[in-house]
Structure prediction request, 212 residues.
Amino acid sequence: MANLSLLVAVLALSLSSVALAADNSALQDFCVSVLVNGLACKDPKLVEANDFFFSGLHTAGNTTNPNGSKVTPVFATQLPGLNTLGISMARIDYAPWGINPPHMHPRATEILTVLDGALEVGFVTSNPENRHFRVVLQKGDAFVFPIGLVHYQRNVGYGNAVAIAALSSQNPGLITVANAVFGATPDIDSDVLVKAFHLDKAIVNYLQSNKF
Prediction:
Protein backbone atom coordinates (compact mmCIF):
# COMPACT_ATOMS: atom_id res chain seq x y z
CA MET A 1 0.00 0.00 0.00
CA ALA A 2 2.87 2.34 0.85
CA ASN A 3 4.48 1.63 -2.54
CA LEU A 4 1.16 2.29 -4.31
CA SER A 5 0.73 5.61 -2.51
CA LEU A 6 4.27 6.61 -3.48
CA LEU A 7 3.59 5.71 -7.13
CA VAL A 8 0.38 7.77 -7.17
CA ALA A 9 2.21 10.74 -5.67
CA VAL A 10 5.01 10.50 -8.26
CA LEU A 11 2.49 10.26 -11.13
CA ALA A 12 0.56 13.26 -9.81
CA LEU A 13 3.75 15.29 -9.55
CA SER A 14 4.75 14.28 -13.10
CA LEU A 15 1.36 15.26 -14.53
CA SER A 16 1.42 18.60 -12.73
CA SER A 17 4.89 19.27 -14.15
CA VAL A 18 3.64 18.54 -17.67
CA ALA A 19 0.68 20.84 -17.13
CA LEU A 20 2.89 23.64 -15.88
CA ALA A 21 5.23 23.27 -18.85
CA ALA A 22 2.48 23.72 -21.43
CA ASP A 23 1.11 27.01 -22.71
CA ASN A 24 -2.32 28.02 -21.51
CA SER A 25 -5.15 27.16 -23.88
CA ALA A 26 -7.36 29.94 -25.21
CA LEU A 27 -10.60 30.42 -23.31
CA GLN A 28 -12.49 31.87 -26.27
CA ASP A 29 -12.44 31.79 -30.07
CA PHE A 30 -10.45 35.02 -30.31
CA CYS A 31 -9.43 38.17 -28.45
CA VAL A 32 -8.97 41.04 -30.90
CA SER A 33 -6.64 43.47 -29.16
CA VAL A 34 -7.73 47.00 -28.35
CA LEU A 35 -4.23 47.79 -27.06
CA VAL A 36 -1.70 44.97 -27.60
CA ASN A 37 -0.72 41.49 -26.45
CA GLY A 38 -3.64 40.64 -24.24
CA LEU A 39 -4.02 43.94 -22.38
CA ALA A 40 -7.62 44.27 -23.46
CA CYS A 41 -10.07 42.50 -25.76
CA LYS A 42 -12.40 44.19 -28.17
CA ASP A 43 -16.07 43.54 -27.51
CA PRO A 44 -16.76 40.35 -29.57
CA LYS A 45 -19.96 41.92 -30.89
CA LEU A 46 -17.89 44.71 -32.44
CA VAL A 47 -15.31 42.42 -34.07
CA GLU A 48 -15.30 42.40 -37.87
CA ALA A 49 -13.44 40.67 -40.70
CA ASN A 50 -10.93 43.51 -41.03
CA ASP A 51 -9.65 42.71 -37.52
CA PHE A 52 -8.22 39.50 -38.99
CA PHE A 53 -6.96 41.02 -42.26
CA PHE A 54 -3.63 42.52 -43.29
CA SER A 55 -2.54 43.75 -46.71
CA GLY A 56 0.97 44.70 -47.74
CA LEU A 57 3.15 41.59 -47.91
CA HIS A 58 3.15 41.86 -51.71
CA THR A 59 5.01 45.18 -51.49
CA ALA A 60 8.81 45.19 -51.41
CA GLY A 61 10.35 46.93 -48.41
CA ASN A 62 12.72 49.88 -48.75
CA THR A 63 16.25 48.50 -48.32
CA THR A 64 18.10 51.80 -48.77
CA ASN A 65 19.57 51.80 -45.26
CA PRO A 66 22.96 50.84 -43.76
CA ASN A 67 21.92 47.20 -43.26
CA GLY A 68 20.41 46.84 -46.72
CA SER A 69 17.29 45.11 -45.43
CA LYS A 70 13.72 45.85 -44.42
CA VAL A 71 11.39 43.85 -42.19
CA THR A 72 7.63 44.19 -42.72
CA PRO A 73 6.08 42.71 -39.54
CA VAL A 74 2.63 41.22 -39.17
CA PHE A 75 2.37 41.05 -35.39
CA ALA A 76 -0.57 41.74 -33.09
CA THR A 77 0.28 45.43 -33.35
CA GLN A 78 -0.39 45.38 -37.11
CA LEU A 79 -3.06 42.65 -37.09
CA PRO A 80 -5.18 42.82 -33.91
CA GLY A 81 -6.83 39.47 -34.60
CA LEU A 82 -3.52 37.72 -33.87
CA ASN A 83 -3.75 38.69 -30.21
CA THR A 84 -3.53 35.60 -27.92
CA LEU A 85 -3.25 33.23 -30.89
CA GLY A 86 0.49 32.67 -30.52
CA ILE A 87 1.60 33.21 -34.12
CA SER A 88 2.87 36.01 -36.35
CA MET A 89 4.88 36.51 -39.52
CA ALA A 90 7.05 38.99 -41.38
CA ARG A 91 8.37 39.71 -44.84
CA ILE A 92 12.08 40.49 -45.08
CA ASP A 93 13.60 42.19 -48.13
CA TYR A 94 17.36 42.24 -48.72
CA ALA A 95 19.40 44.38 -51.09
CA PRO A 96 22.40 42.65 -52.71
CA TRP A 97 24.73 41.71 -49.84
CA GLY A 98 22.29 43.24 -47.37
CA ILE A 99 22.01 41.78 -43.88
CA ASN A 100 19.46 41.27 -41.16
CA PRO A 101 21.98 41.84 -38.34
CA PRO A 102 22.50 39.51 -35.38
CA HIS A 103 19.41 39.61 -33.18
CA MET A 104 17.15 37.42 -31.08
CA HIS A 105 13.44 36.97 -30.35
CA PRO A 106 12.96 36.42 -26.59
CA ARG A 107 9.46 35.00 -27.00
CA ALA A 108 9.46 33.07 -30.28
CA THR A 109 10.99 30.38 -32.43
CA GLU A 110 11.26 31.48 -36.07
CA ILE A 111 11.12 29.53 -39.31
CA LEU A 112 12.41 31.40 -42.36
CA THR A 113 11.51 30.48 -45.94
CA VAL A 114 13.34 32.00 -48.92
CA LEU A 115 10.97 33.18 -51.66
CA ASP A 116 13.62 34.61 -53.96
CA GLY A 117 17.40 34.84 -54.01
CA ALA A 118 20.03 33.14 -51.85
CA LEU A 119 20.58 33.79 -48.14
CA GLU A 120 23.35 32.84 -45.77
CA VAL A 121 21.68 32.22 -42.41
CA GLY A 122 22.92 31.13 -39.05
CA PHE A 123 22.44 31.05 -35.30
CA VAL A 124 24.69 30.65 -32.26
CA THR A 125 23.91 28.41 -29.30
CA SER A 126 24.10 29.55 -25.69
CA ASN A 127 27.20 29.55 -23.46
CA PRO A 128 29.56 27.84 -23.03
CA GLU A 129 29.57 26.09 -26.43
CA ASN A 130 28.54 29.08 -28.59
CA ARG A 131 28.26 26.76 -31.58
CA HIS A 132 27.62 28.50 -34.90
CA PHE A 133 25.18 26.73 -37.22
CA ARG A 134 25.33 28.19 -40.73
CA VAL A 135 23.88 27.28 -44.12
CA VAL A 136 23.14 28.94 -47.47
CA LEU A 137 19.48 28.80 -48.43
CA GLN A 138 18.15 28.86 -51.97
CA LYS A 139 14.65 29.67 -53.19
CA GLY A 140 12.16 27.36 -51.47
CA ASP A 141 14.49 26.39 -48.61
CA ALA A 142 13.56 26.86 -44.95
CA PHE A 143 15.57 27.16 -41.74
CA VAL A 144 14.61 27.29 -38.05
CA PHE A 145 16.01 29.71 -35.47
CA PRO A 146 15.31 28.38 -31.94
CA ILE A 147 13.71 30.72 -29.45
CA GLY A 148 16.02 33.22 -27.75
CA LEU A 149 19.16 32.41 -29.77
CA VAL A 150 21.17 35.03 -31.67
CA HIS A 151 20.68 34.64 -35.43
CA TYR A 152 21.18 36.56 -38.66
CA GLN A 153 20.71 36.51 -42.44
CA ARG A 154 22.81 37.84 -45.31
CA ASN A 155 21.99 38.10 -49.00
CA VAL A 156 24.85 36.33 -50.78
CA GLY A 157 23.54 37.02 -54.28
CA TYR A 158 23.93 39.93 -56.66
CA GLY A 159 20.17 40.50 -56.89
CA ASN A 160 17.49 41.27 -54.35
CA ALA A 161 16.29 38.53 -52.00
CA VAL A 162 12.97 38.03 -50.23
CA ALA A 163 12.01 35.77 -47.33
CA ILE A 164 8.96 35.09 -45.19
CA ALA A 165 9.36 34.39 -41.47
CA ALA A 166 6.78 32.67 -39.30
CA LEU A 167 7.09 33.08 -35.52
CA SER A 168 5.54 31.25 -32.59
CA SER A 169 4.26 34.35 -30.78
CA GLN A 170 1.90 37.17 -31.66
CA ASN A 171 4.51 39.49 -30.11
CA PRO A 172 7.92 37.79 -30.51
CA GLY A 173 10.02 40.75 -29.38
CA LEU A 174 13.28 41.84 -30.97
CA ILE A 175 16.71 42.45 -29.45
CA THR A 176 19.32 43.54 -31.99
CA VAL A 177 22.71 42.82 -30.44
CA ALA A 178 24.53 45.95 -31.62
CA ASN A 179 21.60 48.22 -30.71
CA ALA A 180 21.24 46.72 -27.24
CA VAL A 181 24.94 46.84 -26.39
CA PHE A 182 26.13 50.06 -28.02
CA GLY A 183 22.85 51.90 -28.41
CA ALA A 184 21.39 51.54 -24.92
CA THR A 185 19.76 54.58 -23.30
CA PRO A 186 21.37 55.63 -21.05
CA ASP A 187 24.72 54.27 -22.25
CA ILE A 188 26.31 51.21 -20.70
CA ASP A 189 29.47 52.47 -19.01
CA SER A 190 32.24 52.38 -21.61
CA ASP A 191 34.62 50.70 -19.16
CA VAL A 192 32.27 47.71 -19.02
CA LEU A 193 32.26 47.40 -22.81
CA VAL A 194 36.04 47.91 -23.06
CA LYS A 195 36.57 44.91 -20.78
CA ALA A 196 33.78 42.82 -22.27
CA PHE A 197 34.83 43.25 -25.91
CA HIS A 198 38.58 43.91 -25.42
CA LEU A 199 38.27 47.13 -27.40
CA ASP A 200 40.02 50.47 -27.14
CA LYS A 201 37.91 52.98 -25.24
CA ALA A 202 37.95 55.36 -28.22
CA ILE A 203 36.32 52.67 -30.38
CA VAL A 204 33.65 52.02 -27.75
CA ASN A 205 32.92 55.73 -27.47
CA TYR A 206 32.68 55.97 -31.26
CA LEU A 207 30.24 53.04 -31.45
CA GLN A 208 28.11 54.51 -28.65
CA SER A 209 28.03 57.92 -30.31
CA ASN A 210 26.76 56.42 -33.58
CA LYS A 211 23.48 54.89 -32.46
CA PHE A 212 22.57 51.86 -34.54
Remarks:
- Residues 2-21 form the longest helix (20 residues).
- The mean pLDDT is 88.
